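Q: What changes when hexanedioic acid is included in the input?
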Amino acid sequence: MNHPPVFEFLARRLDDAQIHRTETSSLADDFELDVNDAYTIQSLLIDRRERRGETVIGAKLGFTSKAKMAQMGVSEVIVGRLTDAMRLADGDDVDLTRFIHPRIEPEVAYRLGRDAGFDSDLVECVDAVAPAVEIIDSRYRDFRFTLTDVVADNTSAAAFAIGDWQPLQPVGNRAVRLSVGADEIVGSTSAILGDPVHALHALGRVCRQRGFTLRAGDVILAGAATAALPLTADGARCEVAGLGTVAVKGVRP
Ligand code: 0L1
Ligand code: MG
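A: The predicted holo structure follows.
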């Protein structure tokens, strides 16, 4: 695909920020980018990760809550790609020096039981659901970013962990509790677009628009059920009522 050479430069700038854990300034300070440009930069960033041996294993949605959409002045979700290098096991220690200023948020994860075609209804492709946590780590200084910045930065994706998969079931209004050490925040899965299943419809639209493909076994992080908490050297635990729990522990080696 043809794109201005500056897009490669910006993808490298974001990639380097992630690799070296150094914040970068908002791209919008110096460049006029639209959302299409931002998704192209995101794809170039993912190409760089794939060239280093990472494999794309799914997708994630952001800005799925009314509060976050209002804060950013947007009405559509954003989508990023998940790679195998971001995957943690339930209960893992997670090295905090991998990140710049990590935050953790409680999520609902879906798993695809079969490849999704261009016109597929993703709901029909999903075979399991699970509690999950996502670690987000914006590469921008002081979390100062625009919509196009965050899309280019692969929607702040940094790491994730998924609890035990459960048979697909409605999870539209389940209580959610996230704790990091003594900090605790409670919410509901309904904060995710009213019902996390709506994230599958929204993701399907973005996949068709952007040419993203999803395959059997891929995971989808539907969005955050509460605000994020800073990830510290304490245990972090997420419980989704009736679905189960998932935990990780921040450590400083
Ligand atoms: O996963 C998400 O909620 C996307 C977050 C993107 C913005 C941020 O870093 O807060
Ligand atoms: Mg998230």
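Observations recorded in class: The chain has a mean pLDDT of 96.
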